[in-house]
Amino acid sequence: MSIRHGLLALLERGPRYGSQLRTEFESRTGSTWPLNVGQVYTTLSRLERDGMVVQDGADEAGHDLYAITDGGRAELRSWFGTPVDRTNPPRDELAIKLAMAVGAPGVDIREVIQSQRHHTLKAMQDYTRLKAQALADAPTNRDEVAWLLVVEQLIFQAEAEARWLDHCESRLVRLAEAAVTEPPAAPGSAAARGPARALTARQKSRR
Fold this sequence. Notes:
Largest sheet: 2 strands, antiparallel
Radius of gyration: 27 Å
Number of strands: 2
Order of helices and strands: HHHEEHHHHH
Strand order of the largest sheet: 1-2
Distance between the termini: 59 Å
Strand content: 5-15%
Number of helices: 8
Oligomer: single chain
């Protein structure tokens, strides 16, 4: 997630100070990705170093204000106009967990899947309730509409994860059934001696 570009988008609406940016960022995203003030000011310092924001005096309460520059606006337009890169997907802890659970001693991967499915479905129900509340209040401003988009993305993501877990379980069942029905290799056969030796035996038979 680009905090950098999120702050630029908020600054395009006018000069703001650090804690104000944090509050507006969390309001726009429903606190799905909470920020701390230190993180905001660190990002602002980098944006200032890169010529995308400048300090713009202070407000009546003495808060230092930041304003977006023309360079910052150009960067923001480029961000909005460029598709999010999916060629290098972020690490997914669940996918890694299931990949490592396959064949791990003492691990019942189906129990791992069942536990995750229960958690995922509960999260999806919670997100659905949040969506129902948002719709009941009839979104009227940009922050409320933005939060509705975010919570709907979370619902779709949870639905996709639940379907993938169902698929994983079905695949494991099919593989288990195939292993049971596959006839055992005859003693002394190339298959019984292992894949590498079987390959060697086939190569010799062709000579």
